[in-house]
Design a protein that fits this description.
Helices cover 44% and strands 19% of the residues. The chain is an alpha/beta fold. The strands form three sheets. The protein has a six-stranded mixed beta sheet. A six-stranded mixed beta sheet has the order 7-8-9-10-13-14.
């Protein structure tokens, strides 16, 4: 038995509270500037119960930034993440980028001031493939799912057939379109998508969206597989036809930066992701063309 509550304070910075009779866990933690409102939402949902875990699917600013504010509120909370996420938080360059992206998100939200404690980001419990987070009646097995980032992990409950997915599975852009999120490469992403599909979830906690159940799960996974492959096919054919890297980034933006996507992700963040995605795709394409 479990309950999922969206306690995020702002679109694009969603955070989901996972509650069982025995334990509580926050799945991702949103932006820095809205962390205070997120914490108030968590308190309303939990009442007198403590927050036991923050489960980070990866280290990006819109998923991890609020975790340090949670640690200040609940002294015993354990932030859970991958070994790669833990390493990211130790890098000055990564913290600078997280801070910059949070500042941009705050500006777009009309927030002039907020307390920046980015340097406190950390992972308390490092997990890897097969490790289990015990929420009492709900046991979450860690699945390493790199693709969106190297540090991406997902969680799966065999009892409930619940998949807590990371963005490697893709982001719904509306009308059955799923934006691929292969910032570390196409093949690694597709391998992880197929790995998630193989557990045959009956419920998926989709990043930024919430809990999807039943047939919608299978449709989403099918759409994710299709759009991963279709985008690779499109980029390959257009690159072979002479399109430049910048033109390919434009095609990617035209197809996936929909109105629905714009509500979740600032254009600056979207373009930054594209700046990683397209060059990596081209390297894979060039390797395949040489074979």
């Amino acid at each position: 038995m479990y309950e999922v509550v969206n306690v995020g304070a702002q679109p694009g910075g969603e955070a989901f509270l996972l509650v069982t009779p025995e334990r509580t866990a926050l799945v991702d933690a949103g932006f820095a500037h809205s962390a205070g409102r997120m914490i108030e939402n968590i308190k309303k949902a939990l009442g007198d119960r403590p927050l036991d875990y923050v489960l980070l699917t990866h280290s990006h600013y819109d998923h991890a930034s609020g975790s340090i504010y949670c640690k200040r509120e609940w002294r015993d909370v354990q932030v859970v993440g991958s070994v790669h996420a833990a390493a990211v938080f130790q890098k000055d360059s990564a913290r600078r980028l997280i801070r910059e992206m949070n500042e941009n998100a705050a500006m777009l939200a009309g927030v002039a001031e907020y307390e920046d404690i980015t340097d406190g980001l950390t992972v308390d419990t490092v997990v890897g493939e097969g490790d289990v987070i015990d929420l009492g009646s709900l046991k979450l097995r860690v699945i390493e799912t790199p693709g969106h980032t190297r540090c991406c992990i997902s969680f799966f409950s065999e009892e409930e057939k619940l998949l807590i997915a990371c963005e490697t599975l893709g982001v719904p852009a509306g009308d059955g379109v799923v934006m691929p999120c292969y910032m570390t490469g196409y093949q690694a992403t597709m391998d992880s998508v197929m790995k998630m599909a193989a557990v045959k979830p009956r419920a998926i906690l989709v990043p930024h969206y919430g809990l999807w159940q039943g047939e919608k799960c299978y449709e989403f996974i099918g759409d994710a597989i299709f759009w991963n492959a279709e985008t690779m096919r499109l980029m390959w054919s257009e690159y072979a036809a002479g399109k430049t890297e910048e033109e390919l980034k434009g095609l990617f933006r035209e197809r996936f930066y929909t109105e629905q996507m714009a509500r979740l992700q600032p254009e600056k963040a979207f373009l930054l992701n594209a700046d990683y995605t397209i060059p990596l795709l081209l390297k894979e394409i060039e390797r395949k063309m040489k074979k």
